[in-house]
Amino acid sequence: MEFVKCLGHPEEFYNLLRFRMGGRWKVIPKMDQDSLSSSLKTCYKYLNQTSRSFAAVIQALDGEMRHAVCIFYLVLRALDTLEDDMTISMEKKVPLLHNFHTFLYDPDWRFMQIFTDHIGQE
């Protein structure tokens, strides 16, 4: 169905194809990894591991907007992962979701329950 919609806008199909065939490197501005803080380097590492398609779109943004959207995407992805995990009891999940915003300010906070539960099941 989406392909049929694309037929009404052939220029979009052409641009998408050109982007996928290597044109993205002309669109995505170069980012000097050496000038990034260690925190931003870590964010981009996780972004690239999490979603190649979103990573490409986010890295095509300019300057500070790129960094803000990268962080925003990772925070929402973490929140969504927590919310979607059916192995966490509601008694644990609800307080985690309600307090999630406070954990963002604590660099030592970790939630390893997801990983330890899955490892224990193997």
Automatic annotation (TrEMBL):
GO terms for cellular component: endoplasmic reticulum membrane. One of its GO terms (molecular function) is squalene synthase [NAD(P)H] activity. One of its GO terms (biological process) is cholesterol biosynthetic process. Transmembrane segments: none annotated. Gene3D superfamilies: Farnesyl Diphosphate Synthase. This is Squalene synthase. It comes from Spermophilus dauricus.
